[in-house]
């Protein structure tokens, strides 16, 4: 890929930007952009960790028959391998800016490759940070030159907050420390904690549970192994199979090591900078500071008990209106009726309601393998004897090791619900506990869900359209909300409902847009049912207009105040994060909602050519 023909790029001035008070707007075409020698000096100051970005599929655009290309093609949908490379995003949306892209056709990667491999939204340069000092130096450098900063950790982000065209990227993937404290007292505090885990910014969920499992502990991770749990997960919420037992990831936090905009390294906790600690426990990643270490409560390992049910729906191809499908209605109603009891008893749930089948997992971490059986006995009887269901798989399972439970969830029928290496649109809503407490509430809830399915399947035309995901993985027994800045809507809710759809490179922009639109529309019946309610900030619709209330709830004003205190110039900024500059900030021109025409990342200039021009 990169820029063989750069004269054009250098000469063509980008549109003049009217920026108001928006800061950090230097573009590579402007005089404020560092010279080659300034970049080199910076590189030396960080021990040579400045890197030139290579988009993941670059080898295929260079030579489709090369071994390097075949490797890319083979692993195109593999989340761990995508996460291990700066030049790949988990969702293709965020590799693209306007018509600039370097995509492969996800399902048939070696076909249809033509045109130029461009950076799209990826930064031309990134810093491969290993130490806190690399971070401080990078913050100072971007402030000196007024360059936009982006922070990328590990795993997916459904708003693309980890990538910004023409920014300098700070990549924290390689911060891989792992440690255990039998006893721990946060800096400056008197509180004593036991069994505290400590991880560097780039530790993934898989690395965390693998390490702590050998020490006899569980970690409150989510469903996807590639997620960096100290990043947007651990700063924005973090739900998963242990949520109903122990709460969100942010609930486990006892201390963070962060570098604030002023370059200061701080150990923040309930005693030091408690306002910042509160905000970073739920206010979102990439917003307040660069987090380098995360210390959190571990939990003694117990077996993971699972009730797993998968079934096809008889006559599914004849269903034209899901609101009238008795099977769908009865299944979702039974689920809703049982939910309060399950949540109160620490049972977590993953339920995928497809147009033609259902997959339902009820999960209870417990030494007592009988509890889950009795809690789900009615549900099991109901499903097993339902004449509209063709049971494909049904089992009570007990996994002594967390890693064995994870291995079980990697079966395609479950894992495919978290597909990456494709374009993705999604929208979600948290459903309050009150709805589950009356017959009328349950009826309204089920109606809204089935309407969502109907809208998703008629408006959406992508893979996954028509399928509703129901997560009962939140902090249903951890209602104390004063210590974390996370969206209060989490605390009182029993379900997180998500609708979405997938697009491929071969889908035209119009189709991509309609899949995005369908996700937002599908969630509307759930919104109408929950006025003033919310959505998990990491699993929402990036087009959400009412984003402050929806993603942050009544905490927004306080979160913004803390943001202004620690980051007065807006050094840290991302799409619909606290302190977001608005859709018209030209650095968000790649998002469809922006009024600006897309300004993709400017490729690096070849020094010789630049010199010729300067002569
Ligand atoms: C930064 O320095 C290292 C070590 O000298 C070098 O390998 C790397 O290519 C340099 N980065 C850039 C962008 O020039
Ligand atoms: C769970 O669902 C089944 C099937 O609808 C029902 O028989 C049972 O009463 C429900 N349990 C509760 C606690 O509502
Ligand atoms: C679970 O059982 C094991 C083995 O009997 C025991 O050592 C452990 O303390 C129990 N854990 C809990 C949380 O009850
Ligand atoms: C830009 O920086 C100035 C201080 O240098 C600050 O007053 C202003 O609020 C900043 N703008 C944004 C959008 O953060």
From TrEMBL:
Species per Swiss-Prot/TrEMBL record: Glonium stellatum
UniProt GO molecular function? FAD binding; oxidoreductase activity
Identify its protein family: Belongs to the oxygen-dependent FAD-linked oxidoreductase family.
Q: Which residues does the UniProt record annotate as the domain FAD-binding PCMH-type? A: 119-301
Q: Is Flavoprotein given among the entry's keywords? A: yes
Name recorded for this polypeptide: FAD-binding domain-containing protein
Sorted keywords for this record are: FAD, Flavoprotein, Oxidoreductase, Signal
Instruction: Look up the record and name the cofactor or cofactors this protein needs.
Output: FAD
Say yes or no: keyword DNA repair present: no
Q: Could you tell me the superkingdom of the organism this chain comes from?
A: Eukaryota
Instruction: Specify the taxonomic lineage.
Output: Eukaryota, Fungi, Dikarya, Ascomycota, Pezizomycotina
Which positions make up the signal peptide? 1-20
